[in-house]
Write a structure and sequence with these properties.
Layout lengths: L4 E6 L3 H11 L4 E7 L12 E4 L4 H11 L4 E4 L6 H14 L3 E4 L12 E4 L2 H7 L6 E4 L18 E6 L11 E5 L6 H10 L4 E5 L8 H9 L3 E4 L10 E2 L2 H17 L4
Parallel strand pairs: 1-2, 1-4, 2-3, 4-5, 5-12, 6-11, 7-8, 7-10, 8-9, 10-11
Helix pairs in contact: 1-7, 2-3, 5-6
């Protein structure tokens, strides 16, 4: 009987959950999804689920060996740079094939007033030149970048899944919500709160893209934090289907030739 392959998905994204759903029906595969545990009530994928950190790349490599993981898929958020780096180091140490599953980034369209920056700190430095009422959609992690005294004159509407913790901007309202978001809903937020600048990470995907359309329609500048690069040498799939193809190729390759 063919050995059932253990696939570890480092999840927390829609793509990671969809990948687990697609693999769950394959009798050749056992899927475990690892979630960081930063969201209070995450949407759980099918298959086995573990919650919490591994203790760096060494801890992840040990977990991979101990649980006989055959394939590793990094389907974390495009901005989870530390986890992606740990995954690359652990995969190399444990000699397990690694794939990064990354939805494509957003592309500016005609009429967009985008300002591309490399970090949240750079976004904060730019804000006073662009507006006074900020729609901050970068999540609750990293709000400290916007808590400096130099931004005390600005008002922030912070949207996140869970309530943020200090340090936070001094003048701030919090909107607890989870995507996907509608275009009409985003238009209403910009109107109701008199937003004149939007800050976002280049997360990509459709679930949170309507805010970009709403900002374009309203002529509002958008500060876009560029995503960190995928670790060097790690292959990338843009969709869950591409990731499934990668897994299946590995299954067939090892089944027929004993190697990938």
């Amino acid at each position: 009987m063919t050995h059932v392959k253990h696939v570890l998905v480092l999840g927390g994204t829609t793509e990671g959950r969809l990948l687990a759903e697609r693999l769950a029906g394959d009798p050749r595969v056992r899927v475990t999804t690892s979630l960081a545990g930063r969201v209070a009530a995450p949407r759980l994928p099918p298959g086995d689920v573990r919650v919490g950190g591994f203790g760096g790349s060494d801890g992840l490599a040990s977990w991979v060996r101990e649980h006989r993981v055959d394939l590793l898929v990094d389907a974390t958020h495009p901005f989870a740079a530390t986890m992606s780096r740990n995954a690359a180091e652990a995969a190399a140490r444990a000699r397990v094939p690694l794939l990064a599953l990354r939805r494509p980034g957003w592309v500016a369209q005609d009429g967009d007033r985008w300002h591309s920056v490399a970090s949240l700190a750079e976004a904060a430095d730019l804000l006073p030149t662009l507006g006074e009422r900020v729609f901050l959609t970068t999540g609750r992690m990293g709000l400290a970048a916007f808590a400096g005294a130099g931004l005390d004159a600005l008002w922030f509407l912070v949207r996140s899944v869970d309530a943020p913790e200090p340090p936070c901007p001094r003048r701030m309202d919090v909107l607890l919500d989870r995507g996907p978001f509608s275009l009409e809903g985003e238009r209403e937020i910009l109107r109701r709160h008199r937003i004149d600048v939007l800050v976002t990470k280049d997360s990509g995907g459709d679930a949170t893209a309507p805010k970009l359309t709403a900002a374009r329609e309203a002529g509002i500048p958008v500060v876009v934090v560029r995503r960190p690069p995928v670790p060097e040498g790690v292959p990338v799939a843009a969709t869950p289907d591409e990731a499934v193809e990668w897994v299946v190729r590995r299954l067939y390759a090892e089944g027929s030739a004993g190697s990938g």
